[in-house]
Design brief:
Residues 1-24 form the signal peptide. Keywords: Signal. This is Outer membrane protein with beta-barrel domain. It comes from Chitinophaga japonensis. The structure is a single chain. With 197 residues, the protein is mainly beta. The chain is 14% helix and 56% strand. The longest helix is centred in the N-terminal third of the chain and has 24 residues, at 2-25.
Length: 197
């Protein structure tokens, strides 16, 4: 688990470094919204997430709380952005599942994707990557990393002075952590503080 945390911290440090390096090279774009209301060329957001398991996943886990950090980088007229996202989620196990008390599931998802604004401030986003199981031995899983994908819709509220509130609803799916197991799907809500760089 220490190795996973170190890898996550290194990834976050690299993301931050890339964000600041890119900002230094992008002096022609303001960090706050343009007069026409477009988003900044680079947007960094951090915030909490709450999730509700679906299907067979909800038979063992009640809900999840966590958080994530995301970087959005404009690649086409500030309507299309490349995104990178890293986070942490703790899925709380139900007290009694067929006579046993399972352990919580601790997941570190790392994803990249695209975010598109079809109209001002409203976006659709799709990401894919890997979900790392931080407590594999505690939950008896066969795999420590699986494929993850996330479609999301949301709205970027402008707060002024280059600050924003990013609110999104997502469906997230992970492939099987255990051989012969089932995929893990859930609905999530992310509310993040965002700022332009």
């Amino acid at each position: 688990m220490k190795k996973t945390i170190k890898t996550g911290m290194l990834g976050l440090a690299l993301l931050t470094g890339v964000a600041f390096t890119t900002q230094a090279q992008t002096t022609d774009h303001p960090s706050s919204n343009d007069k026409d209301g477009r988003c900044p060329a680079i947007l960094l957001s951090v915030g909490p997430e709450a999730n509700l398991p679906l299907g067979d996943f909800k038979d063992v886990y009640d809900w999840s709380i966590g958080g994530s950090v995301q970087g959005d980088f404009a690649i086409l007229k500030r309507d299309l952005y490349a995104t990178v996202n890293a986070g942490y989620a703790n899925f709380f196990a139900k007290d009694d599942v067929m006579g046993i008390s399972p352990n919580d599931l601790q997941i570190i998802p790392v994803k990249a994707g695209l975010k598109y604004y079809p109209v001002s401030n409203f976006y659709v986003q799709a990401q894919a990557g890997a979900a790392f199981l931080a407590n594999k031995s505690d939950v008896g899983a066969d795999k420590s990393a699986v494929f993850a994908y996330t479609p999301q819709v949301g709205y970027l509220f402008h707060l002024g002075n280059g600050s924003h509130l990013d609110a999104g609803i997502k469906f997230e799916g992970y492939s099987k952590f255990a051989d012969g197991g089932k995929s893990n799907n859930f609905l999530g809500l992310r509310v993040a503080y965002a700022f332009g760089l």
